[in-house]
Amino acid sequence: MTMRGFIKLTDGNRQKKKSMLITGIIVLLSIGPSASRAILDGDDDCGGCQNGASCVRDLHEPYVFCNCLLPFKGSLCETRTCQDGRECLNGSECIFDGYHHKCDCSTTTDKKKYYAGLKCEHESTELCAFSESVSKLDYCTNGGICKLRVDGTNSA
């Protein structure tokens, strides 16, 4: 079971309460000098925390979780959130176009794949070419077929 949430270790004799999401249940934790938490170094048991997050293990419970840095969330801190609460997937960045927050699908972390959709949730299935110039943003998703492919051939 993976616990996810935001947690900060305290120093000195001060105690802070933080909320943490554990499989859909909100729990208040009292974190102070007696807290038994360890930040794991190197290969973590969290399954690969992303975006600068650290893997944290509770020494008295069999739980590990990623300690996400803002604006990231998710069990691996893989989802970026916009100020309006929109989630941007696959490492895409949230941008403000002057009117709305939106996800910029050209900024995903996997540079070998391209994504589309409001949250950049749809992976490309084929790269397309329109006119003489080839744009990395011209592609099909959901098994679609391009009329003119990047290699110059027409689809059947």
UniProtKB/TrEMBL annotation:
<protein>
    <recommendedName>
        <fullName>EGF-like domain-containing protein</fullName>
    </recommendedName>
</protein>
<feature type="domain" description="EGF-like">
    <location>
        <begin position="42"/>
        <end position="78"/>
    </location>
</feature>
<feature type="disulfide bond">
    <location>
        <begin position="49"/>
        <end position="66"/>
    </location>
</feature>
<feature type="disulfide bond">
    <location>
        <begin position="68"/>
        <end position="77"/>
    </location>
</feature>
<keyword id="KW-1015">Disulfide bond</keyword>
<keyword id="KW-0245">EGF-like domain</keyword>
<dbReference type="InterPro" id="IPR000742">
    <property type="entry name" value="EGF"/>
</dbReference>
